[in-house]
Amino acid sequence: MHATLPRLIATDFPALARGQLEVLQANITLTCNQSCFHCHVASSPKRKEAMSQETLELLLAMLDRNPSIHTLDVTGGAPELHPQFRWLVQEARKRDVKVIDRCNLTILCEPGQETTAEFLAENQVEVVASLPCYSAKNVDAQRGDGVFEASLKGLKQLNDLGYGKEGSGLQLNLVYNPLGPSLPPAQQELEAAYKQELYKHFGIHFNHLLTLANMPIQRFGSTLISRGEFETYMDLLKASFNHATLPGLMCLNTLSVDYLGQVHDCDFNQQLQLPLGDAQQAVHLQDLLDADLQGQPIRVADHCYGCTAGQGSSCGGALSQ
């Protein structure tokens, strides 16, 4: 895989500083039942890295000592494959912290995961689920044969439990990202199309669609380099810079923790192994339990233009309409 960081590190991206810490995002495993072309984490069934019990307990200590954190955003890989996933969710919910599970949907159909959807509902976990299109052809092209059908089965499991239905209190949001080196279309219009098509053809309900741009890092960035398209895509991101997206960037209120307990400004910086802020070496969560990070600098590089292009991208979708 081609290294993308050397092409990104020199940047003219605007300086950013942290606001109040509100979201703790934890990548608890790189193991996944899928191996997707666009994956910025490079997860796959072959990856065995997983967060230790000691580090999981540090996440909870961080919640206990920082009451401004209202959300634990759990990701991977497929986070449900971590043997302590359910324990972590239950412990966070005991603290009245909102939990987000970034779910690929197909995991709900895997052996050993038969009760996962029910567990998520019982604990009122918000599900943010990847579904890059409402057609089988496009989804399978990006994620592998049969992924669309398995994703529908997962969605139907969640719908049967009340997810995505008005008045249930169970939030189900879908995530769209383009198939190639282009920007996502307008989020509101695409959400309307998703809702119409998924309900018309499959009877599927969901709450919102979140649109994300593909980041020029890891597998996707490496593929662009191989095809000679990396600079063209970067030019597109930079030419589409939208200053109005800056106040909504996720790095302003979020800390990203990797499976080793090392802390980064965002999930993308984590994958590039960029230390937190202006630190010269890795910073561990243990050293931040009582730290006040507000006003501290955020480490930026050229990939940050992926979050500010067009209507913008974040783990919560578009940043401007």
Automatic annotation (TrEMBL):
Protein name as it appears in the record: Radical SAM/Cys-rich domain-containing protein
Keywords: Iron, Iron-sulfur, Metal-binding, S-adenosyl-L-methionine
Parts forming coiled coils: none
Pfam families: DUF3641 (PF12345), Radical_SAM (PF04055)
Start and end residues of each Arsenosugar biosynthesis radical SAM protein ArsS-like C-terminal domain: 183-318
Domain Radical SAM core: start-end pairs: 27-164
Single GO molecular function: catalytic activity
Cofactor(s) listed in the protein's UniProt record: [4Fe-4S] cluster
